[in-house]
Design brief:
The protein is an alpha/beta fold and 279 residues long. The protein has a single domain (10-277), classed as LigB-like (Protocatechuate 4,5-dioxygenase, Chain B), CATH 3.40.830.10. It is 33% helix and 18% strand. The strands form three sheets. It has a six-stranded mixed beta sheet with strand order 6-2-8-1-10-9, with helices on both faces. It has a two-stranded parallel ribbon with strand order 3-7. α6 (195-213) runs antiparallel to α7 (216-224). It is globular and about 50 Å long. The two termini are 22 Å apart. Mean pLDDT is 94; it is low at 188-192.
Length: 279
């Protein structure tokens, strides 16, 4: 792809639960604050992207796989929702040409990678883009996270992808700053009252300070040692929804972070946040 005159920012977005933008009824209003935040994303990007690359916490492989289908299908990777959401479509095209470019960038760093010609969009991608880019008129690709969740490797992936920002590609890490569904369910049925509220608030305070108050070198070092954060393993017993953050930080490692979404009452109890890196 040709270099553009504008370097696009990167984003780490908390994506909510399941296919919520496609739902009717009582559940949808619970995502109102998140939805309002997501709607502002196009205004935070100075030009219309040539493509969107999503690193979703809902696709993991042994190496960094690259979506290569020209017309990616849908992956309905959730359960317990109304039947109609298992038929929704986000009809964006893929880009096999860009997929090869991404594979080459990753290979140049020595990280194992491969093209996946059949993988489709998971809800970590379309639950965001249905709000930020509902027209689905921009090619969309995904790169998987790695199943070992190694923080250094995910920072390195971001560094490998960084040249894409000069080529008009918008890089989004899709996860969640809090992701412990077991604790939420236990709290709901009466066990451990207020633990998710307290734990998520303290971890989120650490995350905000880490991303916005420290130098780029310190920020990366703190993310490598994220398990030292307050209640780190209570908030992320498995870090699949956190390591997309490492990727987008790696892709904008020397640039400032901006808090773009903050909510301390998500589902009435959880502190959640999202960030932009770069201007």
């Amino acid at each position: 792809m040709k270099r553009t005159s504008t370097k696009l920012p990167t984003f780490y977005l908390s994506h909510g639960g399941g296919p919520w933008p496609y739902m009717n009824g009582d559940l949808r209003p619970r995502f109102a604050k998140l939805e309002s935040s997501l709607k502002t994303l196009p205004q935070q990007v100075s030009v219309k992207p040539k493509a969107i690359l999503v690193i979703s916490g809902h696709w993991e492989e042994r190496d960094f796989a690259v979506m290569a289908s020209p017309a990616p299908p849908m992956v309905y990777d959730f359960g317990g929702f109304p039947e109609y959401v298992y038929h929704v479509r986000y009809p964006a095209t893929g880009s096999p040409e860009l997929a090869q470019r991404i594979e080459s960038l990753i290979q140049d760093t020595g990280l194992p990678t491969h093209l996946d010609p059949v993988r489709g969009f998971d809800h970590g991608t379309y639950s965001i883009l249905a709000v930020t880019h509902p027209e689905a008129d921009i090619p969309v690709l995904q790169v998987s996270i790695r199943s070992d969740y190694d923080p250094e490797s995910h920072l390195a992936l971001g560094r490998a992808l960084a040249p894409l920002r000069d080529e008009g590609v918008l890089i989004i890490g899709s996860g969640s700053s809090y992701h412990n569904l077991g604790a939420l369910m236990s709290e709901r049925i009466g066990f451990y009252p207020n633990k998710p509220r307290e734990e998520s608030a303290q971890f989120d305070s650490w995350l905000r300070k880490t991303l916005t108050d420290f130098s780029s070198r310190q920020r990366s070092q703190h993310l490598l040692n994220w398990e030292r954060a307050p209640f780190a393993r209570a908030v992320h017993p498995q870090e699949d929804h956190l390591v997309p953050l490492h990727v987008v930080v790696g892709a904008a490692e020397d640039e400032p972070a901006h808090l773009i979404y903050a909510q301390d009452d998500f589902f009435g109890k959880i502190t959640m946040s999202s960030y932009r890196f770069g201007n």
